[in-house]
Amino acid sequence: MYFIDTHAHIDMLKNLKPAEAVARSREEGVKYIINVGSSIKGSRKSVEFAQKFENVFASVGIHPHYVKDFGKEEIKILESLICGKQDAAGGNECKRYGKVVAVGETGFDFYRNLSPRLDMERAFASQIELALKYDIPVIIHDRDAHRQTLEVVKKYSSSKNFRAVVHCFSGDAAFAMECLDLGLYISFTGVITFPNAGDVLKAVEKIPMERLFIETDSPFLAPQAERGKENFPGYVKHIAQKIAEIKNLSIEEVADITSKNAQKFFSIN
Question: CATH no. for residue 33?
Fold first, then answer.
């Protein structure tokens, strides 16, 4: 039995050093970690970790908080990182570095509204197009923006190479069904272990296992059993256990299915 944490930010950990977080996670049964970029700096760290740690893969992207004045220069840098380079040397001759497995996180965040909405939409669309160019999936951030997220996704959902996951899913079962209808995958965090999870738990019940991932979003959102501690990928087992309870499955079955889902979706061999 092993787990895949499909969304972590080990570059943001304060109490654990990256190497310690990776080693401890392996001890907890986490075979692979996808470190997700949320800024240019974070995306560079993701690629650095992917090159340094055998079991860490990278996603590169810019979170909606940081897309004010997003433009061609940011796309050029992200493209270079997809090629495994730390400088802006992407372009037509770029070949994707195999351990960069996604673009994102990107999308909308209307909870904090730290960037203009038009900038969020432009950055979201641009990053989807970048993912299509390199035939890799998109990691979607959606907070208080379900309608707008679906509107953008609908423009690309029929594209041949388009595949995407709504990370840290926060909607209800009805929204989940709309996501599934557009071909999206859905990923759950420690939020499903919280006493007030409510509508999100109903979504877990409805979503078929073959369209589901697990993630920690560490260092944020530590599962209820670990509240007050710094979250890290090793805690992904708590999300698997909660899904097992809801779906009336064993944790081994959840680990197996979600891991196979992630390996196929992110092309992790």
Answer: 3.20.20.140
